[in-house]
Specification:
This protein is mainly alpha-helical. It is 57% helix and 5% strand. The chain has eleven helices and five strands; from the N terminus they run αααααββαβααββααα. A hairpin with a 2-residue loop joins strand 1 and strand 2. Helix 3 (51-66) packs antiparallel against helix 6 (137-155), helix 7 crosses helix 10 and helix 9 packs across helix 10 (259-277). The radius of gyration is 23 Å and the shape is globular.
């Protein structure tokens, strides 16, 4: 990742400081140390992308341990709003990204209102900051997913190969969202929709730029891993009493593993929203072009400069335009 791909000044400063640390004359060259460096950078970027969600989850735990039950919903809502404002004030999120988060917020709140009324899960009814029996902090949980999605796109400079046609993705995503409501009245089509998702993304790969390396990963694997981590976070949130499923009414127990499928389907809706709002992610990866041109080397240098290409800034040239070899 280079500074020009970053969207906030804070992240630009962090990026420059990290590169000075990693490249200050002691960049490891052995394969094992290189792999470890990339792994640690990958983990750091993932953690940074999860800032909103991690802070919200930690707040749920703290509120559960310290705040009386009757005030928890309102405290969580005000805390979630404060986290969102702080993300903007301290330059961790852009106004453009906030618009994406608000879309996720609205889409999630509509589903929350419906799901609580049909008994899929429930919240404690206390508090003033409630809409149709649903505490307003619930929308921030979906906003946290949206925040992660847009931040991970730019932190890793995500690009896709064989990305499905947008109209087909929109149709499947719309079917998934409608099924979240409709399966309470008609046949549940989630596994048919899951099969369509597999068919849609079976050949799609994601290019993930870490530090020096650009990795390739099947999109289905990436979405499944994110769904798994959301399910793990959901276990923490239900333990903290943020909401509860019917099976947890008597005493807390782990959330059913089948919820991973529901979160995977929700990831498809999230991908459709982000790729609609950020159409550049559907473009061909720039790294492919660099490899074809022979420029995919650390530092962006080229082993063979393409014909007709201009020399680098500051490079001496002859009258014919060819690079001049510096004198000893």
């Amino acid at each position: 990742m280079t500074v020009r791909h970053l969207s906030t000044a804070v992240e630009a400063r962090i990026d420059r400081a990290a590169r000075r640390l990693l490249d200050a004359g002691h960049q490891p060259h052995r394969p094992g140390r290189l792999a470890l460096t990339e792994f640690l950078v990958f983990g750091a970027k993932q953690a940074w992308a999860c800032t909103f969600g991690a802070l919200l989850l930690a707040t749920m735990v703290v509120v559960h341990l310290t705040v009386p039950p009757g005030a928890r919903n309102d405290v969580l809502t005000m805390s979630a709003a404060a986290i969102q404002v702080a993300m903007l004030v301290f330059g961790l999120e852009t106004v453009r990204e906030l618009r994406v988060v608000l879309v996720f917020h609205v889409v999630g709140t509509v589903m929350e209102v419906f799901k609580t009324h049909v008994g899929s899960w429930e919240y404690a009814g206390d508090g003033w900051l409630v809409v149709a029996g649903v505490p307003l902090f619930s929308g921030f949980m979906y906003g946290a997913v949206g925040s992660f999605m847009v931040r991970v796109v730019r932190l890793f400079d995500l690009r896709f190969d064989r990305y499905p046609r947008q109209w087909s993705l929109v149709l499947v995503a719309a079917g998934i969202y409608a099924n979240f409501f409709g399966h309470h009245f008609v046949w549940d089509a989630r596994y048919v929709l899951l099969a369509l998702v597999v068919a849609l993304f079976a050949r799609t790969t994601m290019h993930v730029r870490v530090h020096r390396a650009t990795l390739r990963m099947p999109v289905l694997l990436a979405m499944a891993l994110v769904a798994l981590f959301i399910w793990l976070a959901e276990n923490v949130a239900t333990w903290a009493g943020a909401w509860s499923y019917p099976a947890q009414a008597g005493a807390w127990q782990p959330v059913a593993p089948t919820k991973v499928v529901a979160w995977l389907l929700l990831m498809v809706v999230s991908v459709a929203l982000v790729s609609w709002l950020y159409p550049q992610v559907r473009s061909a990866p720039a790294v492919t072009d660099r490899r074809r041109a022979g420029t995919d080397r650390p530092g962006g240098t080229s082993r063979h400069r393409p014909a007709g290409a201009r020399p680098a800034v500051g490079q001496l040239t002859t009258s014919s335009g060819q690079p001049r070899r510096p004198r000893p």
